[in-house]
Amino acid sequence: MFASKLRFLPLLLVCVSTFLTAQQPAPAPAPDKIPTLKITSREVVLDVLVLDKKGHSIQGLKAGDFQVVEDGAPQVVRAVSEHRALTPEEVARLAPDPLAPNEFTNYAPAGNTNSVSVILIDALDSPTTAQMYLRQQLIAFMKSMPPGNTFAIFQMDRRMHLVQGFTSDPQVLLKAVEGKRDEISLPANLNSATREAMMHVGLKMMGQYLAGFSGRKNLIWFTGSVPHEVFSLTGNPFPDSVDFDNMRARFANALSLSRVAVYPVDDRGLEVFREHEYSHAVLDEIAERTGGRSFHDTNGLKEALAQITETGSNYYTLAFSPTNPVWLAHKRHLTITVAGREHATLLYRHVYFARSGRKAYWKKHAQDNIAELKPPPPPADIVQTAGDGLDAALELGSMISGELPFRLSAMPAPRPLKLAKDAPWPKDNYLEPSLRTKPFREFELLYTVDPHNVGFTQTEDGVSHAQLEFLVAVYDAQGAMVNSLKTTRVSEIGDANYRRMLESGTKLTLRQTIAVPEKGNYFLRLVVHNPDADQTGSLEIPVDNIQRGVAGPGQQLISSSQLP
C-alpha cells in the first residue's frame, strides 16, 4: 500500500432518500459456550481482572463474590460473565462465512473473540537502543508464544502504522517482527505538544480499527512515556459507548466502559539511575484509568508480554445499576473488591463519566483538549475535502477501520468506454480531466450494512434516524487521487418498521458507479461514515482483485451484446 499526501477531487453528489433494503439471512449465532451478558435496565458494564498473589487469574467467581462501591455508595452487581481464552474448536465455530467472488468486507474477526492483544511500538519516545532490544525480545517471545493467542502489531512514528493485523499464527507474527518494518519517520523539532497531538490522532485511528473486534483489547504499549493529556477523561482516544436495547425499550441502555486496557511497558529497561520517576508515575496512572497494569524497571520485556497474555484472556464482565440516577456526564469513582480475597489484585477502570447519550451527544458536552493534526490543505485546483475528519479514513494506505462493518459487492462493466473529445461528459463522473479522453471502465458498487451495527438516534415521537455517508476514491499507483464520489443517505423509520427491520435481518444497501482508468494499476478506497454516532468503516481494494465477467452478490451480469 502506498502512503501519500491526500488530494481530494470534488465530492459533489449528495442526495437524501430512504435506504434501499435487501432481505438477507441473519448472522449465525455464537457458540453456546461463549458467555453473554444480558442487560435489563440502565447499567454500567465493565471488565475486571482478578489476580492472586503470584499474578495468576482467579477463576470461578460469581456475582455475589464482587463488592462494588461507587462514590462511597454500595452497588448491587446484577450480572457477572466470566471469560476465558477460546479453544480451537470454539474459534473454528466463530469463523465468518466465506466471501463470494467480487465480495469484500472490512470485517476481520480475530480468532479469540473474548480477548485480543495489541503490541504498540512507540518510536516517538523510545531511544534507538531500546527499540533494538525490544525487537530481540519480541522475536524471542514469538518463538515460544503459547498457541491460541491473537495479536496485532502497530508502530507509531510520524503516523500510526499497522505492521501486522490480528492473527494467532506464530509464524506470521514472527515474520512481522523479524522483517524490515516501516522506516521510522519523525518530524523535525519534535516538542511535547506536537507529540501529544500526533499520538492522540494515531490512537484514535487505532481505536477505529479496534472497534471492529469484539471482546477485551489488551494494548501492550512499549514506550518511554505516555502523554498524560492523551488519556484525560475528556480526551481518551478509546471512548466509552452507550448501547441501546431497542428491541425491548427505548429507555433501556448500558454504558459500556471502554474495553481497551492499556499496559504501558517502559522499553528502556532497568536503569541504574532512576531519572524517570515522573514518567513512571504517569504510566501507572494510565494503566489504572484503563484497567491495565504498567511494567517498568525491568529488562524482562518478554516476560511482561507472557504475563499480560496469560492474564488478559481470563477476566470478568460486571454489570450494575448505579444508585445515583443523575446521568449528566458527572465523574464517578469505583472501588471493587472480592469477598474473602483480601490479597487479590483487581484490574479495572477506577473512574468513568456517567453520560446518557451516544458519541455525538458526548462530543457536544465535552471538548477535546488535544488539537488534532490535519493534513496540509489541498492545492488550489482541488475544490473541497471529504470533511468531518474523514481525510485520514480516505487516505490510501491508512488503517482499515472496522468500527462500522460493511460488505461491498463490485462488478466491472463488460467493456471499457472512450468518449470523443467533444462528447458530453457523463453525469456524476468526476474523473480527473487529464484522463477523460482515455479509455475508462465503470464499476458498480453495492454496499451492504447491517442495521444492528448502525447507531440510530431516536426522536421523542419514536422515529429512528440514521444518516450514512458513502465515499469512494480511486488512486493510482503513485498515491494520487484520480476520481471520487460521495453519496449521503438519510433514513427515517417509524418504531414498528424499525423493530421489524432488526428482527427480519433486512440490510441497508446503496449503489454507486465509479469510473476507473482502463490502463494502469489503481486502488479503490471506500468509507462508510455515520456522523450522528461518529462511526467510521473503511476498506481498500486493488482494482486488479475485482474479477472481470463475474457478478458479485446482488449484482446482475450484463453481456456486451446487451449494451446499447
Automatic annotation (TrEMBL):
NCBIfam families: acidobact_VWFA (TIGR03436)
Keyword Magnesium: no
UniProt entry tagged with the keyword Signal: yes
Protein name: VWFA-related domain-containing protein
Top-level taxon in the UniProt lineage: Bacteria
Signal peptide range in chain numbering: 1-22
Matching InterPro entries: VWFA-rel_acidobac-type, vWFA_dom_sf
Species this chain originates from: Granulicella rosea
Keyword terms of this UniProt record: Signal
